[in-house]
Amino acid sequence: MIVGSASVESLAVNAAEIIDYFTQAIEFSDVVCLQMTLEMHNQAREAVLPAGLHPTIPATLSIQAWAVNQSPWGAFTLVICRVGCRSGVRARGFTTAVYASAAEVVSELRSQFGFPARLADITFRHSYDGADIKVSVGGKEILNIAALDPEPMGLNDVQYTGALNLAHTPNGLRLVQLEANHQASRVERLKARLQTFNAAAFGNPLLDPYLVISASISQESVTFSPIRFVCRPDELAFTGTEAISARTV
Fold it and tell me: Which domain holds residue 152?
């Protein structure tokens, strides 16, 4: 059985802190979400995951860019980078980095969802012919995606796996299982190119996406359910999962 071999202490360098678990659903509406899935070389397989997770074979990376027009924190743009994995039998994405366009949003993403969010300059252009995403930190470009030629897809043709965020919680340092319900009104596939990707800026120098598997863009609303489970990062989900529904405040 292949499991992650990364140091939990190293992975937790930018870990967020959740003081209290949120108890009411949080909704983002009028959202445009671009999702890009890529294959990586095996050096970015178990070496980038904690021991509590199983890597996918081949190793995969997903990048999501969101333009959120309505939320409890106003309008913002967001980029999420995740490594494909499994927690027990469930497909998940282990979050390695998150960037948002507003300081208040960064704070909320960290304290509510456990995302390792940081502030960045994000450009998300989307129109009838495709989308372009650029992320810069300190004037240095760390991500550049170009996606063209949208083609219609069925509303259920794209699936979004739950996120696992390594964060300090009332239970201790845990993998927070964050579930998002995406309700799409339009979905299109795209032909995408990853033109710039700074692996270190996205959480680990070993990340090396080299082949685009798929890309899609959707117009949707996203609802985050209250967190129900967290997992010990150094223990498999079958024994290391903890229910927190009874611990809400």
Answer: 8-247
